[in-house]
Design a protein that fits this description.
By secondary structure, this protein is of the alpha/beta class. Helices cover 36% and strands 22% of the residues. The protein has helices at 18-29, 49-54, 78-82, 91-103, 131-150, 164-172; strands at 3-8, 30-33, 37-42, 57-63, 73-77, 111-117, 154-157. The strands form two sheets. Strands 3-1-4-6-5 form a five-stranded mixed β-sheet, sandwiched between helices. It has a two-stranded antiparallel ribbon with strand order 2-7. The chain is globular, with a radius of gyration of 15 Å.
Length: 179
Amino acid sequence: MKIAVIGVGNILFMDEGVGVYASKMLKENYVFKPEIEIVDGGTLGFKLMDYFEDYDKVVILDTVSIDDNPGSVYNLPAEALMGLGDYRKTVHEVEVVGMLEICSMLDKMAEVSVMGIIPEDILTVQINLTETVKQGLPLLLEKSVNILRAAGIDVTPKPMQQTIETILSFYDDPGMRLR
């Protein structure tokens, strides 16, 4: 089974980048057998469409704008997401749902689920997460790992775990990428 985990969002707007950070945490903190593809989808939007066609299962990590408490975590199958109507509050949420709607008309489409967390602040321009979303992040990761295990992936934590603060500093200091 060909599986991809795609973290989407804009890291420049606080909690809106949580999907990108969560995908980086999965990549840095776990070993997956057989291997899976973990993608920093950022704001690539419709350029991610190939994953929906070429893979058997896609897990999207993202914010979800649902009327609930910030930090709450949801696992939404593609069909449920498309049925939420005007839940779309950010540009990438519009693109994700748009991609799902277009791909649902194709002959082959991956089984897609969205692991999302309700953001608290998507307006402040800052590479960081609110404390509320930081507190919800472990549950988002745990549920994502559970989805992968249910799909037959052996997921093993690495001995040295990267914290969210380390991941945030990676994105906040472009010089670290060159080391």
